[in-house]
Each structure stands twice: as C-alpha cells, then as structure tokens.
Automatic annotation (TrEMBL):
SUPFAM superfamilies: ABC transporter involved in vitamin B12 uptake, BtuC. Keywords: Cell membrane, Membrane, Transmembrane, Transmembrane helix, Transport. It holds the Pfam family FecCD. GO terms for cellular component: plasma membrane. This is Ferrichrome transport system permease protein FhuG.
Amino acid sequence: MSAGFHALQVLLVTRLDPNKFYLVNTWTIGTISGNTWEHVWVLAPVVIVLSLILYARYMELNLLSLA
C-alpha cells in the first residue's frame, strides 16, 4: 500500500514544473533553513533525556533478542 502511494506521489511530482517541485519536495521532507541555535537548545534536553532512557534499556529494545 505504501509503495503504491509512493509511486503515485513520484509520478505526480515528476510532472510538476521545477518551482512547484521545490515546494512539494520541501513540504514532504522538510527543511532546516530558517532554524537557529535557539531551536537546537530547545530540543537538546529532550533528545538527551530520551537518549539516556534508550541507552539504559537497550537490551530490552534489541530486536534481535526478541526472537
């Protein structure tokens, strides 16, 4: 299902003119232009805390050990 929708999206995007393609591409995958270091400092504590939690529980989250 996902592959079908992706193929449809690729087909539609390839038919666009370059200006519209840039807008659609930026909308679908995002961009980091316009962001500042303030954005990094806002997200840094969240990323650090989640990284520590994941590191502490990495054995439980190991997909290979679930089999």
